[in-house]
Design a protein that fits this description.
There is one protein chain. The protein is α+β, with helices and mostly antiparallel strands. The chain contains 2 helices and 2 strands. Strands 1-2 form a two-stranded antiparallel ribbon. β1 (about 5-10) and β2 (about 10-15) form a beta hairpin. The longest helix is centred in the last third of the chain and has 14 residues, at about 45-55.
Length: about 70
Amino acid sequence: MYTMTGIIQGNTVLTNDKSLEKYNGRKVIITVLEDEKQFESVPDERVFAISDSLMNQNMEAYQELAK
């Protein structure tokens, strides 16, 4: 699993992460956070906890992507 942040502009998600090129062509799930702040640094532990929570809540979507 890989986590990164970005912003949505039109139909495009903009990021500053060039390492995403190695994931070209893979399916993704995009979660839009309703937050006025565009960027915020958070500890890895919080990111993992949020990620685990989102995966548990969206298990059916992840199972569809795995097919």
